[in-house]
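Cross-check.
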Amino acid sequence: MRLGRWAVGLPQADIDVVAFADLYDYYLPRVFGYVASRVGSQTLAEDLTAVVFEKAWRKIATYRGDRGAFSTWLFTIARRVVADHFRRRGRMETISLEDLPELTVAEGTQEGEYFRQEEVARLYVCLKTLSEQEQQIAALKFFSGLANKDIARILGLKEDHVGVILYRAIRKLRREFER
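Predicted model, tokenized:
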């Protein structure tokens, strides 16, 4: 990514729009995956993802590469947007099956698709049994594809601690999913 042209203090008009568009295209699926996994609604996830990129665009002049990767900065914004949403609207306790994000299945049967959607719905319900921190880490890892070191930077934890929490969260999920 061409981040070198973005420096702290640049006026918004001087920011490389094409470079930001490249970053948007690259990170959009990952940010959307993270947000959708946290809110459980495709429509809401689309809206909040738009807010994330709007904030990133408005604040891009403050990004400093010497303080961390662009992805860490962007997912910190995403995490705050989701947290702000939950603060404003209250914590979501249940998820409607109709509100789950659409998943694409490569050339599956209709019956296979039905069972896959059922499993995804069960997984979302099981995810809600995890602690807030475990949910954050699982979403950043599996829905956004971030490395443990990046997750650690975003959440202010040590990389080893992220690994331990993730391991325990997966064990909990397995047990809950098998019930």
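The chain has two domains: 1-94, 107-179. The two ends are 44 Å apart (CA to CA). Passed to J.P. for a second look.
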